[in-house]
Amino acid sequence: DTDTTSKKNSIELMFDKFKNQEVDILVGTQIIAKGLDFPNVTLVGVLNADIGLKMPVYDSFEKTYNIIEQVSGRAGRDKLSGEVYIQTYDTSNYAITKAAKHSYQEFYDIEIANRKLTSNPPFSEIVELIVSSKNMSLAKKEINIIKKNLEQDNEIKIIGPAEHMIFKVNDLYRYVLTIKFLNENLEVLQMINEMYQNKKDIYISMTRM
User: Fold this and answer.
1) How many CA atoms lie within 13 Å of 195's alpha carbon, on the beta-carbon side?
2) Cα(102)–Cα(73) distance, rounded to whole angstroms?
3) The Cα angle at residue 123 between residues 61 and 69, in degrees rounded to 5
4) Distance CA 128, CA 81 (A)
5) Which residues neighbour 128 within 8 Å (Cβ) at sequence distance 6 or greater?
6) Is the CB of residue 46 less than 8 Å from the CB of residue 86?
7) 96: exposed, middle or buried (C-beta count within 10 Å: 0-12, 13-18, 19+)?
8) I need a surface site. Which of 39, 71, 131, 146 has the fewest CB within 10 A?
9) What is the DSSP string of the chain?
10) Beta pairing partners, 43
11) Prediction pTM value
12) Rounded distance, CA 140 to CA 63, Å?
């Protein structure tokens, strides 16, 4: 992980040791899942495979499926056969079950149907809007004003406002709106940004998801 590979070339050195069989077991985060080819690896274990399913993002299932698929592909890449063990508390979740079977098409069919039902990408554009201020009441007031203005457009769906997961940073209180644009017309965001450009006690940030 980033705590043990912060020095220059430390990642490459660790992978070389593993490839040269100076060490037999490699434990890591997602950093060991992508683009590595170790012919002698015959066993892969995925611990807490479902932890990513709980992330508050629309594509958490897709990311979970991808990481399981990627790390599973490290086993049995040459002449030796491989085994993969997946630890999960959610054995019926389709991201887990389809990844275990390498059933991409089945996963896609379920996921795209759910995305359409919930108006998530690719059927919309999602923007996370954060309002911050040292005055908590002011931040809450302003984000509700923004929400009220956005609600006038029938092609926009809004989730929130809510306290941000990390509610206070550098003495700033943060509230968040998740905005779904069904018609891909994001011009209203420019208007909002201009409204707050000259307000020193309120900060606006927008991130396309």
Assistant:
1) 13
2) 10
3) 25
4) 45
5) 176, 177, 178, 179, 206, 207, 209
6) yes
7) buried
8) 39
9) -TTTS-STTHHHHHHHHHHTTS-S----SGGGTSS---TT--EEEETTTTGGGGSSSTTHHHHHHHHHHHHHTTSS-SSS--EEEE--S-TT-HHHHHHHTT-HHHHHHHHHHHHHHTT-TTSSEEEEEEEEESSHHHHHHHHHHHHHHHTT-TTEEEEEEEEEEEEEETTEEEEEEEEEESS---HHHHHHHHHHTT-TT-EEEEEE-
10) 83
11) 0.77
12) 32
**Residue 174, φ and ψ in degrees, nearest 5:** -125, 130
Would you state the structure tokens that stand for residue 147, as one six-digit string? 């929400």
Tell me: cis bond preceding 121? Omega within 30 of 0 counts. Answer: no
Calculate the CA 7 to chain-centre distance.
Answer: 26
What tokens appear for 69 in the block? 């698929």
Task: Tell me how far apart the 2 most distant CA atoms of the chain are, in Å.
Answer: 65
Residue 63 to residue 66: CA distance in whole angstroms: 5
Question: How far does Cα 175 stand from its chain's mean position?
Answer: 19
- Gap between the Cα atoms of 71 and 32, Å rounded: 7
